[in-house]
């Protein structure tokens, strides 16, 4: 799912079942990622019911989403999935304890969340969670936000160069696997690929790594990613 | 103003770490109430857009100014109180706040050189001693706030007491320049005449020969003078000397002794006389057109405020042109001064004592001037006139008109003349050129 939403205009997505089917197909990694995170275990399509719940929630999100509300779709979808799953777990528990509970009633009350309710407060909380996650991940690489402030290139040109490098690094599976394994940026390979002078890359090492993390973990940093992926918000909203 | 989004990553009091929509991580201090995870809008400073200068901002969601923030309520009251206090002060003390504006600068050069600025009410705002002597002189005086007249009196008296003015050194060169546009203020500024009178009176009181030269200089010229390190008075002298076609260094006029030599140079005095006549004529008889033409033609480099501004004179209620040259001597002073006085007086009688004559005389000179400019042949007439002039003075002297036409010729002529029994040794190397002067009876 590189950037699926660009290929799926919202007006068509809501009205054309085939296109929506295709979109859901492409979104499976995202759904799986989110659901797995909530369940804290790896899940497989066709085996785990949680994924189906996630898919339903995702489909719901498509129905209720409005493009011009200024909310990233994936953020909205993710929240709906989480809610639905929490509700799902509750129903499971309730079923075990009280098999006679009124499931349908409970669900309709709990998981309903319109875009209106997905207000700033919710989004702020979501973003705060992302930031927390990002911070933890940076710590794993021995970085902090303060480091990034000093490592962040002040000049627009430099910044754009490094952003480009980070993008290539994050979207190249081979290169990124080295990052994931060794915990550092493969400078030579990256320089060869981007044709950017190694000195420039070296100076922006921390920055590239941080931005690369944001870009690569596309399912986690739904909000943060927009900040380092210029122009994406327009396409995604 | 353009804004960019920024996400709060970390917050420590007022210290924020942000991730902007341009992909930078920045740390900045912000006076906002926002938590981690909130989006805010950062104004982009246009001038420093590339450097992404960050200014304090308002958060996207909570549009709260510091005004509304609970924590800073006292600041609101403080600002309201400040505004009230300011309003009160403005209402009751408007005059106090507005008055201390310097409207004119008066410089006095004898040996001490100093400059005074006065406000609208003609009281002294600032005293600016320019050399050591002036410092000494002014130290013991409390001039600030005094009326200008009293201040000048005090200065002259003190100077006489401390022998900065004595029989040897009794020249006072006064410069006056307005510091504000004439239109913006009612003409309360001292006139050259008034100041001259005061200075003269005081010098006389001290028992000296009073010799006062007053120059009125425009504010632009004053600025020029300041860059040269001259006082307005010296600048006036300098300009006139230059006008007379002589090579003058700014240093020359700054030196008291040289200055006196200049001022007492009879050639200069003759030129000054000539000058006065022209000016008087301009303001008394000629049409504005002639006036400007003449100024342009003969004294192009010497721009005088009254020449630039036709109404200047009437506004200022001054009947005299900008240069005053006052020379009086008394029995008992040295011969030199006496003679000087006599010469001057005879001239004065003709020029000022009888207005009708005076006028005619001026016209003659003036026409001659014009002719000279256009036709060298008329020089003869000029010479005649000049001779006549010189005879009146009882002092065969150089030809003021010839100078403007042919400096070299004039030089040799004047050298001859100075050799020929002039009481004042005209040292050409030091003489600054022509002055005009006017003698008060």
What does this structure look like?
The complex is a heterodimer of chains A (237) and B (441). Helix content of chain A is 73%, strand content 0%. Chain A has 237 residues and is mostly helical. In chain A, helix 3 crosses helix 4 and helix 9 crosses helix 11. The longest helix of chain A has 25 residues. Chain A is globular and about 60 Å long. Chain B is an alpha+beta fold. In chain B, the strands form 2 sheets. A 6-stranded mixed sheet of chain B has the order 7-6-5-8-9-10, with helices on both faces. In chain B, strands 3-2-1-4 form a 4-stranded antiparallel sheet, with no helix packed on it. In chain B, a hairpin with a 2-residue loop joins strand 1 and strand 2. The longest helix of chain B has 20 residues. The C terminus of chain B is likely disordered.
Which terms summarize this structure?
heterodimer, A: 237 residues, mainly alpha, 73% helix, globular, B: 441 residues, alpha+beta, six-stranded mixed beta sheet, four-stranded antiparallel beta sheet, 18 helices, 47% helix, 14% strand, elongated, disordered C terminus
Task: Summarize the entry for a quick read.
The complex is a heterodimer of chains A (237) and B (441). Chain A is mostly helical and 237 residues long.
Give the helix tally of chain B. 18
Averaged pLDDT of chain B: 60
> What kind of sheet is the major sheet of chain A?
none
Q: How large is the share of residues in beta strands of chain A?
A: under 5%
Helix content of chain A: over 70%
Radius of gyration of chain A: 20 Å
Rounded mean pLDDT of chain A is: 77
**Largest interface, per-chain counts?**
A-B, 32 and 23 residues
Share of helix among residues of chain B? Answer: 40-55%
């Amino acid at each position: 799912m590189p950037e699926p939403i660009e290929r799926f205009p919202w007006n068509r997505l809501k009205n054309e079942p085939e296109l929506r089917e295709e979109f859901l197909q492409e979104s499976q990694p995202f759904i799986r990622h989110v659901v797995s995170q909530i369940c804290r275990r790896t899940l497989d399509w066709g085996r785990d019911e949680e994924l189906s719940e996630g898919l339903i929630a995702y489909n719901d999100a498509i129905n209720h989403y409005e493009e011009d509300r200024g909310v990233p779709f994936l953020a909205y979808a993710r929240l709906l999935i989480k809610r639905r799953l929490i509700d799902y777990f509750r129903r499971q528990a309730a079923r075990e304890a009280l098999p006679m509970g009124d499931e349908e009633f409970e669900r309709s009350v709990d998981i309903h969340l319109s875009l209106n309710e997905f207000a700033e407060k919710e989004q702020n909380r979501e973003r705060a969670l992302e930031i927390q996650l990002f911070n933890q991940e940076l710590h794993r690489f021995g970085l902090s936000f303060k480091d990034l402030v000093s490592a962040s290139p002040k000049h627009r040109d430099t910044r754009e160069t490094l952003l480009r490098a980070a993008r290539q690094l994050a979207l190249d599976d081979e290169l990124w696997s080295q990052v994931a394994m060794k915990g550092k940026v493969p400078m030579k390979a990256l320089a060869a690929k981007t044709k950017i002078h190694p000195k420039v890359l070296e100076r922006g090492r921390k920055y590239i790594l941080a931005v690369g993390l944001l870009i690569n973990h596309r399912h986690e940093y739904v909000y943060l990613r927009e900040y380092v992926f210029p122009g994406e918000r327009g396409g995604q909203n | 103003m353009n804004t960019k989004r920024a996400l709060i990553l970390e917050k420590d009091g007022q210290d924020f770490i942000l991730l902007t929509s341009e992909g930078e991580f920045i740390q900045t201090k912000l006076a906002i109430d926002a938590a981690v995870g909130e989006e805010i809008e950062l104004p982009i400073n246009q001038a420093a857009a590339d450097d992404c200068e960050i200014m304090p901002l308002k958060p996207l969601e909570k549009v709260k100014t510091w005004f509304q923030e609970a924590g800073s309520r006292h600041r609101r009251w403080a600002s309201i109180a400040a505004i009230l206090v300011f309003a009160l002060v403005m209402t009751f003390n408007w005059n106090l706040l507005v008055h201390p504006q310097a409207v004119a600068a008066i410089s006095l050069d004898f040996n001490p050189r100093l400059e005074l600025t006065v406000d609208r009410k003609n009281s002294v705002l600032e005293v600016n001693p320019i050399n050591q002597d002036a410092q000494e002189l002014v130290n013991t005086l409390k001039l600030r706030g005094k009326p200008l007249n009293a201040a000048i009196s005090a200065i002259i008296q003190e100077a006489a007491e401390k022998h900065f003015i004595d029989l040897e050194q009794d020249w006072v060169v006064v410069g006056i320049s307005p510091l504000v546009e004439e239109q913006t203020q009612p003409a309360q500024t001292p006139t050259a005449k008034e100041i001259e009178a005061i200075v003269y009176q005081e010098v006389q009181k001290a028992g000296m020969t009073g010799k006062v030269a007053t120059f009125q200089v425009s504010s632009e010229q004053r600025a020029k003078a300041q860059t040269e390190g001259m006082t307005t008075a010296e600048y006036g002298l300098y300009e006139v000397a230059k006008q007379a076609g002589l090579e003058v260094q700014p240093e020359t006029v700054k030196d008291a002794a040289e200055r006196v030599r200049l001022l007492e140079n009879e050639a200069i005095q003759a030129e000054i006389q000539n000058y006065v006549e022209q000016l008087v004529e301009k303001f008394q008889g000629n049409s504005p057109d002639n006036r400007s033409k003449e100024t342009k033609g003969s004294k192009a480099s010497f721009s005088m405020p009254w020449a630039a501004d036709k109404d200047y004179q009437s506004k200022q209620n001054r009947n005299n042109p900008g240069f005053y040259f006052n020379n009086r001597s008394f029995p008992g002073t040295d011969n030199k001064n006496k003679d000087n006085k006599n010469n001057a007086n005879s001239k004065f009688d003709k020029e000022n004592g009888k207005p009708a004559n005076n006028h005619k005389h001026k016209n003659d000179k003036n026409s001659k001037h014009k002719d000279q400019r256009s036709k060298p042949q008329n020089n003869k007439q000029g010479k005649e006139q000049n001779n006549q002039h010189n005879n009146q003075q009882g002092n065969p002297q150089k030809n003021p008109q010839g100078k403007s036409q042919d400096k070299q010729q004039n030089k040799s002529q004047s050298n001859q003349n100075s050799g020929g029994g002039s009481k004042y040794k005209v040292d050409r190397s030091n003489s600054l050129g022509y002055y005009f002067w006017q003698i008060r009876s």
